[in-house]
User: Fold this.
Amino acid sequence: MSNTMAAVPSFSALQRLGHRIWMLFRASSMMVVGLFIGAKFGRSLLFERSPGSHWMGPLLWFEIAGSIWMLVGLAASIGETRRGDEWRFVAAISIGALIAFENHTWAIIVFGAVMGTWMWIEGQTRHRSLFLAFTGWLGGGYIAMTSPWPIGQRWDLVFVIGGLATALQGGWEIPFKWSQLHRLPQSADGGNGGLQT
Assistant:
């Protein structure tokens, strides 16, 4: 009987495992979102410019995996207290408005500037410098606007550059975020111990 009980993981062990998994999702969220954006729009860009590229398949699978990862991470973050939601709302409205002018070249660089500003505000909220993401979106908007490619491919390009810059920023932030999460007390349900993001 004692051997059987020993083979069953204790509740506290499962709780610690759940907390570790939650930490992994939270620490890597920015990197995964950036890679997902880069993969999604990179695949669209390749389809237009090089439809026979061997990268089409891997990018599709990464897009699917990234979608699942983000959905699981979103479910794990339900109930968290978040700071700066008002700025996220303003950014979302601005982005939606710009998409309505997607056929205008000027909208591309304005979109890059809005996304760069969003990254800057996110950095202020987190008390971190998101310089790579900030410059990536700004630079991506400028590069895409000055590109001789068709307007649709320019939009794909700004998302690819901005997404990859966000992924690099997210990768850079993982050690800091992990140590920050590691210091938080675990709540009874494996929650975030009051983390504000």
